[in-house]
Amino acid sequence: MKLKKPLKERQIEALIGNIGKWNRYMAWCQRKHRYFKADLSGADLSGANLIRANLSGADLSEANLIRANLSGADLSWADLRWTNLSGADLSRADLRWANLSGANLNRADLSEANLIRANLSGADLSWADLRWANLSGADLSWADLSEANLSGANLSGANLSGTDLRWANLS
């Protein structure tokens, strides 16, 4: 008797296998079930090619996304608490209202990313590239932005209480 794989395992295989199919699947699920959220918590997606993936509202908490390519991905409203995104490419990604509290974004590329109202409290953004990123209204309290490049970034209304900005480029 052949047993079905758990849903989370099937979702991970679908995501890695074909982004176009994954995006159609997500669109269908979200039409059918308005509050559908993919559960990818704790998944090992290190080095995965997830360019322009629709991960809106997905639970990626505690996932391993080291050096993953998420350029142009939709991660709005996603749960990325304690996720390891070290060295990941998140350039031009949509991270509006995403929860990245405690996430490791060390040396991540977040250039031109949309981080409006994102929760980055306690996140490690040391050496991150945030050039031209939109961080308006973001919570950066107690985040580590040491050596980060924030050149041209929009920080209007951002909460910077307790944030480490040592040697950060704010020009």
Describe the structure.
- This protein has helices at residues 7-17, 19-32.
- The protein has 171 residues and is largely without helices or strands.
- Helix 1 (7-17) packs across helix 2.
- The radius of gyration is 16 Å and the shape is elongated.
- The N and C termini lie far apart (63 Å).
- The relative contact order is 0.10.
- The model has no long low-confidence stretch (mean pLDDT 94).
Query: What global shape is seen?
Result: elongated
Distance between the termini: 63 Å
- Derived from helix and strand composition plus strand pairing, the structural class reads little secondary structure
Beta-strand fraction estimate: under 5%
- Whole-number radius of gyration? 16 Å
Q: Could you give the order of the helices and strands?
A: HH
- Give the low-confidence spans: none
Q: What's the tally of helices?
A: 2
List the quaternary state of the chains: single chain
Note the main sheet.
Answer: none
Mean pLDDT: 94
Number of strands: 0
* Residues in helix, %: 10-25%
